[in-house]
Amino acid sequence: MHPLVARWRQLTDHLGADFLGGPRVIRLAWSVNLQKGGTLPFVLALMAWFDNFSPTAWTYAALHGSYGLCWLLKDALFPDPNFRRMVTLGAALNSWLLVLGLYWIAPVVLVTQRLEQPPWVLAGASALYALGVVLMMGADAQKYFVLKARKGLITDGFFSRVRHPNYLGEMMLYASFAIVAGHWAPWLALAWVWLALFVPNMLAKEASMSRYPEWAAYASRTGMLLPRLFAKGAASDEELSSTAPPPPLAP
Predict the structure, then answer these.
(1) What are the residue ranges spanned by the domains of the chain?
(2) Furthest-apart CA pair in the chain: how many Å?
């Protein structure tokens, strides 16, 4: 892993776990789940406050709100251990300032500025959202239950053509929210999260997985984020239980 990426991850780890110091008294999942589960009532409250019940607003509430419910279901059935860690109060607040709160920019600008999208845009965004949710949830479920049984590389199923399908799925579904909003501000927030957190985390994970003998062959037939649909070669059925945890702030 490049030294600059390693140093950046050290910074994000500090901001997401020990910011402002003190005891670690809050589980990071509590902060994340509050934002995820609170999205639907937050958007509905915005719609009621600004008296905006347009088809676009309702579509956004259905998409982003249902994703929050899917996340709570995922956390209950196959939770990410990295969100089970305890963090300081400052780090929990920081998670909202740097990541979680930014995800609410889209509904705020959509509802307050009364932005509207044509039906074909809403339909396309809904399709992108559905594919993203299936990819993210399915990949996380496969990883959780396979690694619960054994450690190593998972190179079949969702991981057979792309090495980070869970990140790809999450990027797809959040992109659908930005499309529905139809404003530049949500895209700016997503660019920050993806470039500052997702990319360094994927690079760190790949650096850790590269110690496996089968890694070179697996990496040669798969894409890091975009799948290689016509890759050749038989896949094995294990993936690394990464020793390098993702940045605590990454959702």
Answers:
(1) 3-220
(2) 59
What's the DSSP call for residue 245? Answer: P
The helix (run of H) or strand (run of E) holding residue 170 is helix 165-181
Rounded Cα distance between 101 and 88, Å, is 18
Structure tokens at 140: 């996380």
Conformational region of residue 114, where left means phi above 0, alpha means psi within -120 to 50, and beta covers everything else: left
Q: How far apart are CA 142 and CA 238, in angstroms?
A: 10
For 164-221, the pLDDT digits (tens) are: 999 999 999 999 999 999 999 999 999 999 999 999 999 989 988 898 999 999 999 9
Return the H-helix or E-strand segment holding 26: strand 26-27
Which residues, including other chains, have CB under 8 Å from residue 130's CB and lie 6 or more apart? none
134 vs 119: CA distance, rounded Å: 23
Q: What are the respective helix, strand and coil percentages of the chain, to the nearest 5?
A: 70, 5, 30
